[in-house]
């Protein structure tokens, strides 16, 4: 995050340098233009004064006199002009400044004593009187070096200002980057002055503290509530198992079985909530060097969830190799399998539930179609089919668990089969047999 500081400083320095270069270029253009305009105005004034004398002499004497300045000459008509001037005027009769050959430079002014007489031209060859052209290279060099000096000064000033501006921002960025969920900020905003960055730092510190408190309360509530629920649920399930051994009517036995299944579903949900509320980092389970075998846990889960298949014409085929494994902690894997297997058993009314491995994924397939309410996003919380007795949270919890531990999970419907699958891993296996 501290890399933001050099980038910010660089942008500020470049902004200063760019603005300075732009201003220097604009004023340089104005300066050069002004020099050329002043020089042209000087020559035009010379021609105007000489033209007034020539017209007065023409009116008095009937002819043109010699110019007072040796660089000037009067041509009685256009045909008398030098060839290089005639060629230019033939293309552009309005030209008043013409660059000739061999460094010559002309300024000319038409003279029209009477409308009936041909136009004469007062021509001044001013190459020896030019001021700008001999010093043009020096002028451009002076402007260039001046612009360079100004840019360097702008970079220095911009760097100094950028450092003062970016230093607190870089410090704040580093502190925010170093924040950890288990270590809320404590007083680090006190080192900032009472300006915008200080206000931002105090706001971030307060926000981080509130978020930490909120997360702590959520985890504690989930953990405590889940632990408090596990004991009565275990008692309910145990009582249901004992009641099933007693002589009951068919209706009573059905009610006890339903109660046992509900208790089992609640236990499964509580276990999932505990897995989500666990304080340890999920990366430890998902990026470890070992992986857990799937088959032993899968077999136990199938036996636990078999109650959902009671009185259903459904068979279960498990075709999972013993070396199939996944990088998940055993409690998380058990919760994941319990939700997926239980969901398949609940929605399978006939046929066969297949549990196998294909393309590096564990697949749990049951006959049926995805309901319209869950087809677009089966992992959406509270999204469930009309026939489902649950609340539509099982698959949502599965997605949250898999997202937290970096496991890809999918729900697909192909050729009359609903398939739930998640990616397996490769690596040494921890046996649970």
Provide a descriptive summary of the structure in words.
The radius of gyration is 47 Å and the shape is elongated. It starts with a helix and ends with a strand. The chain has nine helices and twelve strands. With about 425 residues, it is an alpha+beta fold. It has a five-stranded mixed β-sheet with strand order 6-8-9-11-10, with helices on one face. The chain has a four-stranded antiparallel β-sheet with strand order 1-4-3-2, with helices on one face. Strands 7-5-12 form a three-stranded mixed β-sheet. The model is unreliable at about 280-290 and about 425-433 (pLDDT under 50). The protein has three domains: about 5-140, no CATH class; about 180-280, Helix Hairpins (Orthogonal Bundle); about 285-433, Histidine kinase-like ATPase, C-terminal domain (Heat Shock Protein 90). The longest helix has about 60 residues, at about 5-60. About 55% of the residues lie in helices and about 15% in strands. Keywords: Kinase, Membrane, Phosphoprotein, Transferase, Transmembrane, Transmembrane helix. Its EC number is 2.7.13.3.
